[in-house]
From TrEMBL:
Gene3D superfamilies: Aspartate Aminotransferase, domain 1, Type I PLP-dependent aspartate aminotransferase-like (Major domain). This is Taurine--pyruvate aminotransferase. The keyword Transferase applies. The keyword Transferase applies. Pfam families: Aminotran_3 (PF00202). Keywords: Aminotransferase, Pyridoxal phosphate, Pyruvate, Transferase. Belongs to the class-III pyridoxal-phosphate-dependent aminotransferase family. It comes from Desulforhopalus singaporensis. Its cofactor is pyridoxal 5'-phosphate.
Length: 456
């Protein structure tokens, strides 16, 4: 079928409200419209091909484009049974739940929904309902970390450590309190790793004590901060956070919406340590965006907080996600996990991630505007500065120009964008887990060219 590109673009400009962008420039410039993809390659409506180093633009197409095993699984399931509400079960939902928890020590229950924001909302509701059932509503506060992102609803924005994403949407949901981030490169305590006492983790306990331990019911963090600048905490950090939460009977929620499903070289980011969270949320890579799918995953201990005799009508978790009952989406999740396992993509993420960091550092570390290169698995960031000594961040307009230069040369990269006041200065990368050395070489070379062209 011949595509009339001009007609499609005019319809887009007339009717589509795009995400996260100002539409006024569309009066002079056309929006990008993608029409086809295979592996890491995608093609726009004008026939231009790109290497996608951002897994669909939002860290989510983990197994790459055109994966027939997932498409066929969705099709076959929808022909048999497309949907049944989450009050009951479908075979793929049951199989998906079993498959997920088989990869997670001591996690046993899976609540399916449709987005990372929704998955985190479920976790917040669990904390709040536990507070009502067990603590007379007093243990309701949820602490979150500066620079982390947990979603786009009002309550998840209330738990968001990216101030520019929150602007103009207040007043926020009460009961959410921020504590310091854990980026060594910009340590909020002026310390250096090796001689510090991991003050970034101790800041959590200080926050709990300031708020009152009897008022705090949950802590939510990303195991590795994604959109806030690709921040990998030191090895002591998560175990210390877990210990602090245990000390004060606080549920630890680990947001694996980005980091989960192989992105960091493990099934889940928190598994780089030996901690066990109380609740894990995940989305994006769960079905690699072949269908909207997310999950809130808990230990049996969390699940049992909501068990009671039938006459106690207020005790069960009174929540529903309409499209969490889509059997085709669950089938996509089952097939996606199978692809990751069958094709050994966790190991590929680890190996190619090591290669990606090695290449970025060898080609860019000496550049006058490169402050730090950090990452884990196929998940990496390049923080750009005006001066290595002062660490003054480059303006985000320069990052936009670098990303534009890369795109002009056929590579799509990411960047921190209108999120962190005066700190939107990190190039972000998360190519699909199928990436090869050739793919990475092309991505790195595009960044080298872009940085050299824009920054000199």
């Amino acid at each position: 079928m011949t595509i009339n590109a001009k007609s499609i673009i005019e319809k887009d400009k007339a009717h589509v409200w795009h995400h996260l962008i100002q539409h006024k420039p569309f009066k002079e410039n056309d929006p990008i419209v993608m029409v086809e993809g295979k592996g890491l390659r995608i093609q726009d409506i004008n026939g231009k091909e790109y290497t996608d180093a951002l897994s669909g633009g939002v860290w989510s197409v983990n197994v790459g484009y055109g994966e027939k095993r997932i498409v066929e699984a969705i099709n076959e399931q929808n022909k048999k049974m497309c949907y049944w509400a989450g009050t009951g079960g479908t075979i793929p939902a049951i199989e998906l739940a079993e498959s997920i928890v088989s990869k997670m020590e001591r996690m046993s229950r899976v609540y399916l929904c449709t987005s990372g924001s929704e998955a985190n909302e479920k976790a917040f509701k669990m904390v709040r309902q536990r507070s009502a059932l067990k603590f007379d509503g007093k243990k309701y506060k949820i602490l979150y970390r500066d620079r982390d992102y947990h979603g786009t609803t009002i309550s998840t924005l209330s738990a968001g450590g990216q101030e520019e994403r929150r602007m103009q949407y207040g007043p926020y949901t009460p009961g959410f309190v921020q504590f310091e981030h854990c980026c060594c490169y910009r340590c909020p305590f002026g310390k250096e790793y090796g001689s510090c006492k991991i003050e970034c983790a101790k800041a959590l306990e200080q926050c709990i004590l300031m708020e009152g331990p009897d008022s705090v019911g949950g802590v939510i963090i990303e195991p590795m901060t994604a959109g806030g600048g690709i921040i990998i905490p030191v090895k002591e950090y998560l175990p210390m956070v877990r210990e602090i939460c245990d000390k004060y009977d606080i549920w630890l929620i680990i947001d694996e919406v980005v980091c989960g499903l192989g992105r960091t070289g493990k099934w889940f980011g928190y598994q780089h340590t030996d901690i066990v969270p109380d609740i894990v949320t995940t989305a994006k890579g769960l079905a690699s965006s072949y269908a909207p799918l997310a999950a809130t995953i808990t230990t049996e201990e969390v699940f049992e907080e909501f068990l009671s005799d039938p006459q106690e009508i207020e005790r069960y978790f009174r929540d529903i996600s309409t499209y969490g009952g889509c059997a085709g989406a669950a089938a996509a999740g089952v097939a996606n996990l199978r692809v990751i396992e069958d094709d050994n993509l966790i190991e590929n993420s680890r190996l190619m991630g090591e290669y990606l960091l090695e290449q970025l550092k060898s080609k860019l570390n000496s550049h006058k505007n490169v402050g730090e290169i950090r990452g884990l698995g196929l998940f990496a960031g390049v923080e750009l500065v005006e001066d290595k000594e002062t660490k003054v961040p480059v303006h985000e307009n320069k990052l936009a120009a670098i990303a534009g230069n890369c795109m002009k040369n056929g590579v799509i990269i990411g960047r921190t964008n209108r999120s962190l006041p005066n700190l939107n200065n990190t190039i972000t990368l998360c190519p699909a887990l199928i990436a090869t050395k050739e793919d990475i070489d092309k991505i790195v070379q595009a960044i080298v060219n872009g940085v050299s062209t824009i920054l000199g």
